[in-house]
Amino acid sequence: MSRGGLSRFLVSCALLWLGFGAASKRDSYTRLRGAALLTGYAPADLAVTTPEGTWKVQEDGGAVYVFPSFSRDHRIVVSVRPKGFGASGEVLAIAAYSIPEKRWTEFTQIVDFRGGIAISPDASRLAFAVKQGEEAGFRLCFIDMATGAMSFSEEVGRYSRPYGRNKMSWSPDNRRIAYDVYQPGSGASHNDEWVPTIEVMEVDTGKVTKVGKGSAPSWSPSGEWIAYFDNSRDWVTRMDRKGWSILPVEDRLSIARPDGSDSRILVTLPEDRGFWGAPVWSPGSSSILLNEVWDQDTGRVIIHLLEVSTRKLTRKFRNKDPVYGWAEPK
């Protein structure tokens, strides 16, 4: 299958298994011993889980597809809220949900948003990619969560394919942000015209440092590493258990220092398998959770646990909701 399969995958991700309230016990939610996890399909069905229970954040939000995140203490979750349809597409509110207060705060509205919304570890700011005019370029938008004030970076490059699904991750000190972007390549082939690239920006100064080729950056809580997917093959020739498709998955996990040095490959999957989403660090930076595509029709994944020091990869769950964040339970 091809583009039709991708569309079905994206829609099914957002429509699955609606319902259930706080502290419910639902088998499809992913739980890990000693962990608080952000899991589900934003905004249709999103929750924070611990071994003891579940805090339901979103349900019945429609077939919009975004990558949410939560704060270091897992009390604040950022996602989108569907607001209806305008002349140019679906209108979405960039919003934060306070679990203790059981309350949403909406900051701004955007049309047909697809991508990641990253909250800083201290929950002071959030960031997401904004299209620049009618071209494929984009800027980063930053929102002060206390005041709602918005600021923008200079244009940083092209949207990540497909559909501008850029992902980003804040540094533990809340001062820098890593993001993926398409930058001009050598042009030696069609696949090298635009190259997926990881960059780091100092938010207050706008200074940019290139980390390396790849996508879906995830900054370790220790601040020492950025994990990312570094695809070793053409992204359009992915195969899952339903056949060939153009699913936006990657086959290789790498890490590098925030300045791009000391890069190394940790995991490479066989040709018919692929990672999806972004790497998810443990609070102590010793392990990473990885979502692997399992069933494109339901959007379910296999979840692996990687021990970084030994590179040991263990399958923890199969046929589960994907995981976006990992924190110490409070």
Explain this structure to me?
The chain is mostly beta strands and 330 residues long. The protein has a single domain (60-316), classed as TolB, C-terminal domain (Neuraminidase). 4% of the residues lie in helices and 51% in strands. The protein has one helix spanning 3-15; strands at 36-41, 45-50, 53-59, 66-67, 69-70, 76-86, 89-98, 103-111, 115-116, 118-119, 125-131, 137-144, 150-152, 157-158, 168-170, 176-184, 194-202, 208-213, 215-219, 226-229, 238-240, 243-245, 252-256, 264-268, 275-281, 287-295, 300-307, 312-320, 323-327. The longest helix has 13 residues, at 3-15. It is globular, with a radius of gyration of 18 Å. The model is unreliable at 1-26 and 235-248 (pLDDT under 50).
Structure characteristics:
single chain; 330 residues; mainly beta; 1 helix; 51% strand
Determine the number of helices (DSSP H or I, runs of at least 4 residues): 1
Please tally the β strands and state the result. 29
Relative strand content: over 45%
Q: Give, in order, the helices and strands.
A: HEEEEEEEEEEEEEEEEEEEEEEEEEEEEE
Please give the largest β-sheet: 5 strands, antiparallel
Task: Give the terminus-to-terminus CA distance.
Answer: 44 Å
